[in-house]
Amino acid sequence: MAASNLLALIDDIASLLDDVAGMTKVAARKTAGVLGDDLALNAEQVSGVKADRELPVVWAVAKGSFLNKAILVPAALAISYFIPWLIVPLLMIGGLFLCFEGFEKVFHSLFHAAEEDQAHKAKLKQALASSPKELIAFEKQKIKGAIRTDFILSAEIIVLTLGTVASASLVTQLGVLVGMSLLVTVGVYGLVAGIVKLDDVGLYMASKPDAANITKTIGRGILKAAPLLMKGLSVLGTIAMFMVGGGILVHGLPFLHHFIESLIAGLDSIAMMSFGILLEALAGVIAGGVVLLLINVGKKVLGNGTRA
Questions:
Q1: How far is the C-alpha of 90 from the C-alpha of 98, rounded, in Å?
Q2: Burial class of residue 80 in the structure, from the number of CB atoms within 10 Å of its CB (0-12 exposed, 13-18 middle, 19+ buried)
């Protein structure tokens, strides 16, 4: 009897872990846009820090990220248990925020003034030439800013993950949320640490006196590729944000979902899937543009009201 009970328990645990693993994979796919943006943003956040302080700064932000998720996971479970009807509205808000954030990034990159870039670079140079005390203050400011950014992105990831496992048991929800939190934090900040040190690796390989020519060539290639990698991650993250955010909005609005289905009806399966994703991303772009327009109009209206 004891042996059979133990086997039954092991079977239940194995089944639970299998459910957790499967749902975690689904959640990872749905949060791909946020992960790409999280990676690019956090690598960008530690730029401007002295080379020998980059890894300590990344570690400090990673610890803040763990704390963020330690707060967000219990909050998500409480929502799921006590007010489950709130999950869908939160998902829609999260999807809308993703679309807005993506559109704002595109709009800013296309229309912001070149003077802003120059001012940002000048600020970084000034910080690096400061006294040790000022450098510590600058570093702490960077860390706080990165942790605040991480909290917003972590909240999006937790909400998207919770929507994936909303119908599962509380234990499965806990397993998936904790698993995704660990996977995201370790994965993102491990990659961030690697990205911010890429240029150091390339410089070492390219400038080593006794290195072979091929080693120096690879080093110079890494130095050229590092900035392109950052830009590529940012672009891919933005595209994924429209895809994920638009998909959430389309599936949350039945009329829009049925409209897109009617447009792709009759196509073969591959074309249907491709055009479906493209149309969902387009819906995300439109939604992001509308939100940005409403925010800017609201700011002008409130600003005029304040002056009056």
A1: 12
A2: buried
DSSP characters over 118-179: HHHHHHHHHHHTS-HHHHHHHHHHHHHHHHHHHHHHHHHHHHHHHHHTTTS-HHHHHHHHHH
First to last CA, the chain: 81
Compute the distance between CA of residue 244 and CA of residue 283 in angstroms, rounded to an integer. 11
pLDDT score of 307 more than 60: no
CA angle 271, 272, 274 (to 5 degrees): 60
pLDDT single digits (tens) 218-237:
888 887 887 777 777 777 77
Residue with tokens 């959430």: 248
CA distance 74 to 60: 22
CA Rg, the chain, in Å?
Answer: 23
CA distance 234 to 36: 7
Q: Quick check: 37 pLDDT over 70? A: no
Longest CA–CA span in the chain (Å) reads 81
Closest to 177 in 3D by CA, of 162, 190, 187: 162
Amino acid, single-letter form, for residue 301:
V
Mean pLDDT of 68-89: 89
> How many CA atoms lie less than 13 Å away from 175 in the CB half-sphere?
18
